[in-house]
């Protein structure tokens, strides 16, 4: 094996059992009695075999990570990314395959992972350091940095069970990053923190990477993946489908992510949505000047988005909305169908058609993605995975009209009013 390898994964698989009747745990007396009465039959509960359906969260995954490499892991929800990191951090055992890890591993996988709820923040810092194999003196040298970064000085001697999810993340990330493991595994848990803390964490990950430590970073933030990682792994349905240069892997992922480009695509995606007891999506359409458009739109013409759906019962706080994202996964704005209401509205049972219009001269001549969802306010999300509609915007509007060959800068092509007068 090469001396520069930090992680070696070969034929990794993880199988879970789902569904089927629940097993009854028999006493020794029950088992003996059953075997005497029916010695040649397989033990079952009331004659019903405990058949279970198998699902492979990971299937024959193989790759190497070199020391000092920063690798992004991307894929849809449920693809197997978190399962992979749990196996690498020894939280979960694999069903098959081998994992060789050369170095001390620090992990931030889920809110509160590794913390004892009855111990204080201070005690959990020393506990985590000890688990990493650090001496007390080493932990004490890093202690002040950890507390300063986490910004929880006032709650340092409070039991962790009283921490909010944000406080868990702050302290957990700070401990994982500052106790200097050779290999750092970070899951999407950073999304729990506020925007300023996320930015702070990404900066710290950049520092960790520059120090030559190995980082595996799972995230849906493609901008962060592009910025931090020189290499990316794309996982789909438990399989490693691409391993290569970050920008190329991200492009492939976005191209294959179930986007809408035709009416047939719309029907196919809607038909695969899990049924919801409150709302059923029927159709999504986009129009410019009364003509239906798909991927290519003009920025000089208003873009109308039309969503048709049925509400099955009188619902308080039903909201249909979309996010406008850029190609780096930055949220540019979010728009709800009821955001101009003075009070939380009630939707009666029936079919609805909601229209949203993006004005002309708002979008720049770049690629965007509209992500549509529905939710019941403070209750639940009705469309668990957003319906993704890519749009390629062409330049026809007033933005930069006099200099059409000039490079577009920024994320939006706003054409705002200026007033220029000669004063001398």
> Could you spell the SSE succession in H and E letters?
EHEEHEEHHHEHEHEEHHEEEEEEEEEEEE
By CATH, the topology of the largest domain is Rossmann fold
Structural class: alpha+beta
Overall geometry comes to: globular
Beta strand %: 25-35%
Number of structural units classed as domains: 3
* Portion in helices: 10-25%
Largest sheet: 6 strands, mixed
Distance between the termini: 77 Å
CATH architectural type of the largest domain? 3-Layer(aba) Sandwich
3D structure, described in words:
The protein has 424 residues and is α+β, with helices and mostly antiparallel strands. The chain has three domains: 45 residues, no CATH class; 192 residues, P-loop containing nucleotide triphosphate hydrolases (Rossmann fold, 3-Layer(aba) Sandwich), CATH 3.40.50.300; 132 residues, abc- transporter (atp binding component) like domain (Coagulation Factor XIII, Chain A, domain 1, Distorted Sandwich). The chain has nine helices and 21 strands. The strands form five sheets. Strands 5-6-7-3-8-9 form a six-stranded mixed sheet, sandwiched between helices. Strands 12, 15, 16, 19, 20 and 21 form a six-stranded mixed sheet that branches. The radius of gyration is 26 Å and the shape is globular. 29% of the residues are buried.
Which key terms come to mind for this protein?
6-stranded mixed β-sheet; Rossmann fold; Coagulation Factor XIII, Chain A, domain 1; alpha+beta
